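Thread: quick sanity check before group meeting

JM: Hey all, I'm pulling together slides for Thursday and realized we never actually wrote out the predicted structure for the chain we discussed last week. Dropping the sequence here so it's in one place. If anyone has concerns about the input, flag it before I start.
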Amino acid sequence: MTHLLVWLRRVALVEAVSYVLLLSAMVVKYGGKWPIGTMLVRVTGMAHGVLFLLMVLLLLATLVRRHWSRRRLLVVFVASLLPIVPFFLDRHLKDWIREGQKP
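JM (edit): ok, ran it. Output follows.
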């Protein structure tokens, strides 16, 4: 069961990176008004959307299989909506993974 939390942590970090990349691509598109910006936003937007949906599915699986509290689930979900917060939440995810490994 711990592997579910490991995957959640990995996907949350990659999703956070994709969010930062998407925001950067949006700056290129709208701030710089460069033609390549449109392509960058499409590619990073699609990747971010897929990763976000995967993370939500993993959160729901964690709720069902690991019986996480709704508060903990909400903290992780809200953190995913803010650009830099998942990097700070990673420490707590590590602790929760360790907590799940205890007999």
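AS: nice. The chain has a mean pLDDT of 88. Residues 2-98 form one domain.
JM: adding both to the slides.
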